[in-house]
Design a protein that fits this description.
The chain has 355 residues and is an all-alpha fold. It has helices at 2-5, 19-31, 41-55, 68-79, 101-105, 111-114, 121-129, 143-149, 152-159, 163-169, 175-183, 190-200, 205-212, 215-227, 233-245, 254-264, 275-285, 304-319, 328-336, 344-352; strands at residues 138-142, 172-174.
Length: 355
């Protein structure tokens, strides 16, 4: 069963009936210590975790930046630190998000049933229509555009590049080129690969600049994903979700950090997530595996359990592909389909997507 194959969620227990007062006390303790503003980063981070644990409820999914006491603590934390100090914040100290019983059971249907063309008409149609798929080419912006956008850091890196690499950086980013770049750890630093992913996704420049201001705290998290072969895709997602939760990935939502997982992890089985692939998986699974907002984009409320289910379904679709097994990455690309001209699967999705 799909649900059984996914790691069970950890539910953080409420500290007691006086949890609200505990969080309030923790909030006050960060603002003053013997009449002075608390300046110890580690001390404040521990209090943030404490307030978070005391403020969440057991039976719901809580986006913890909505908790007033946590928000006050984090606001104070940001006032006493520079962006570069975020690297000293202990992300591993944050407990996993509370996941409801409903969410942990929502994927109880068998993968084999979902990925069975004989019983799944949408899957049969996907297999048929994907035969006309045109492989993805140069879909992104040149990496040079994003190096220039981040100012002095980008300019310094550019000056030291070999001429052959400079020509390469001025080409529009492609999936194949970015995978090659991210696999070359010695040649391309992780922060440059990070910019490469943003270029591939054609991210807004203002979001790129905001994220780059925190690159000293972002890069260590990405380095772990890039250099830890046994880190699961679910763990990688959790690490990036936690960074996002404390405002460490400004403007970058699940679609971005799923792309970071795909390109940076040594094993490419943590797949990219977009509006189109999410809608596709929801349609093929006949259930809301990935939560979407009113505009149709994946929301911050998607837990690592949902991401794991999404990836498992893509793997299953690849295993049952007619004429031979297909990699999950190839399936994800076909689910994405083409923009211009409109791919056959994209057109089918528009007419049948779950609303």
């Amino acid at each position: 069963m799909l649900g059984d194959a996914i790691a069970k969620p950890v539910v953080t227990k409420i500290s007691g009936s006086n949890s609200a007062s505990n969080a309030s006390t923790a909030s006050n303790s960060t603002s003053q210590t013997s009449g002075k503003t608390e300046t110890d980063v580690e001390g404040v981070s521990k209090r943030i975790v404490k307030a978070y644990e005391d403020s969440i409820t057991k039976e719901c999914i809580k986006w913890h930046l909505d908790v007033p006491d946590f928000q006050a603590l984090w606001s104070n934390f940001k006032k006493i630190t520079k962006p570069s100090d975020l690297k000293n914040f202990n992300m591993d100290g944050l407990p996993p998000r509370v996941i409801s019983k409903h969410e942990s059971e929502v994927f109880s249907e068998s993968v084999n049933t979902i990925a069975n063309p004989e019983t799944n008409k949408h899957l049969r149609n996907f297999y048929e229509l994907s035969d006309s798929h045109i492989p993805q080419g140069d879909v992104g912006k040149p990496l040079w555009d994003y190096l220039a956008a981040v100012g002095e850091d980008g300019n310094d890196y550019w000056k030291n590049l070999a001429e052959a690499d400079k020509a390469w950086f001025k080409k529009p980013m492609s999936r194949k080129r970015l995978l090659s770049m991210c696999s070359s750890e010695k040649k391309f630093p992780t922060r440059i690969c990070f910019l490469g992913v943003l270029a591939f996704m054609v991210h807004r420049i203002d979001h790129v600049k905001a994220a780059w201001a925190l690159i000293e705290s972002i890069e260590p998290v990405l380095n772990k994903i890039r250099t830890t072969p046994d880190m699961s895709r679910q763990k990688a997602y959790d690490n990036l979700w936690r960074l996002r939760a404390v405002d460490g990935l400004p403007g970058l939502r699940p679609a971005t950090y799923c792309s970071l997982i795909y390109f940076l992890r040594p094993k490419q089985d943590g797949y990219m997530l977009s509006s189109h692939t999410a809608k596709s998986v929801n349609l093929l699974a006949s259930q809301e595996v990935i939560l979407l907002n009113k505009s149709g984009y994946p929301t911050d409320d998607n837990s690592s359990i949902r991401y794991e289910a999404y990836c498992q379904l893509i793997d299953a679709i690849g295993r049952s592909y007619p004429g031979g097994q297909m990699t999950g990455g190839d399936i994800e690309e076909r689910l994405q389909s083409e923009d211009e001209p409109l791919g056959e699967w994209r057109e089918y999705l528009q007419n049948h997507e779950v609303r």
